[in-house]
Amino acid sequence: MSFLALDALTKRFGDAVAVDGLSLAVEKGEFVSLLGPSGCGKTTTLQMIAGFVEPSAGSIRLGERDLTTIKPAARGLGIVFQSYALFPHMTAAENIAFGLQMRGVAKAEQAKRVTEALALVGLAGFSDRFPRRMSGGQQQRVALARALVIKPDMLLLDEPLSNLDAKLREEMQVELRQIQRTVGTTTVLVTHDQGEAMALSDRIVVMNKGRAEQIARPTEIYQKPATAFVANFLGKINVLEARAAGGIVSIGSGRWTVPGAPDGPCGASVRPERIGFSHAEGLAGNVTARIFQGHHWLMQVATEAGPVVVIAPNDGRVLPNEGQTVRLNWPAGDMVLTRGSAAA
User: Fold this and answer.
1) What is the pLDDT along the chain (344 residues), one digit of tens a residue?
2) Fewest 10 Å CB contacts: which of 15, 61, 100, 323?
3) Beta-bridge partner residues of 73
């Protein structure tokens, strides 16, 4: 039996449907991200789990409990908000201890657990520091410690890293994942950042217009997107007009063997980093742009099947120059084929 179970969860605001029949099973200790663009229903879903928004239909179960019958404060959840919501007049230790005080935990136990929580998030020497004298990353750690110190049944994270700069966000992703694995708390994260979801999650729920387009492990969602929306939302992807006949997929002058591919027009999706340059075979084209981006080159190629983006690692290999005629090739297994025209 799943630890957290959402069954046909729905939320309507008047005639608008924010969440539309979402079903999701989360195992104990799992880290699951709700990923999607603004307005897709991910934050509303988190708020229904937390108890801040009442569902219009469906159920939410955590273990043996029906959460929809329990007030937010009694659900036993740890929550980290986008704004951190720290009390400015309290020190780091006092902020962390607040939830324990509300639960009537003895002073000695409070002090012990606050010390442990500060050490867990790497702030052992910051107990007397006020939020105004802390960096964004340090404030985020305090908010996380405050959520974990109550030993919650589940941790809810609402875009907790979005206010940090890019470098610090990457560092905090590593730390957050390590902390979650150390503590083992079941975690649900809301984010619009694809890289963040893939870096942190055991599984990702890609949401669009209130529904789950795909629920799978990060590698599966990236390599085998279930829909065109998922393919385009998670990173760059090339979608090309193709035709299959007798197990051969033709894209311009290129040919790929794909046993079992249904005959007829189709769309072929392939990630830019899976495409290489070939001397003899593949899709013919001409390099129109070559852009240096540090650890890789971004190449734009005009081909018979339309423009193609290629990402080539900056590993010392010789790459074609702008204006050069090339052929593009990739393993057949790296293509995702969809029936019908790619433009449909």
Assistant:
1) 689 999 999 999 999 999 999 999 999 999 999 999 999 999 999 999 999 999 999 999 999 999 999 999 899 999 998 887 899 999 999 999 999 998 999 999 999 999 999 999 999 989 999 999 999 889 989 999 999 999 999 999 999 888 788 888 888 888 889 989 999 999 999 999 999 999 999 999 999 999 999 999 999 999 888 888 898 898 889 999 999 999 999 999 999 999 999 999 998 999 999 999 988 889 999 999 999 999 999 999 999 999 999 999 999 889 999 999 999 999 999 998 887 665 54
2) 15
3) none
| Exposed e or buried b per residue across 283-311, where buried means at least 16 C-beta atoms within 10 angstroms of its C-beta | bbbebeebeeeeebbebbbebebbebbbb
Domain ranges of the chain: 4-232, 236-339
Tokens of 328: 């593009």
Closest CA to 186 of 85, 75, 22: 75
Tokens read off for 242: 């193709």
Predicted TM-score (pTM) of the model is: 0.87
* Beta-strand runs (E) in 102-168: 154-158
> What span, in angstroms and rounded, lies between the C-alpha atoms of 63 and 206?
24
The CATH architecture of the domain made up of 236-339 is: Beta Barrel (2.40)
CA proximity to 42, closest of 209, 190, 229:
190
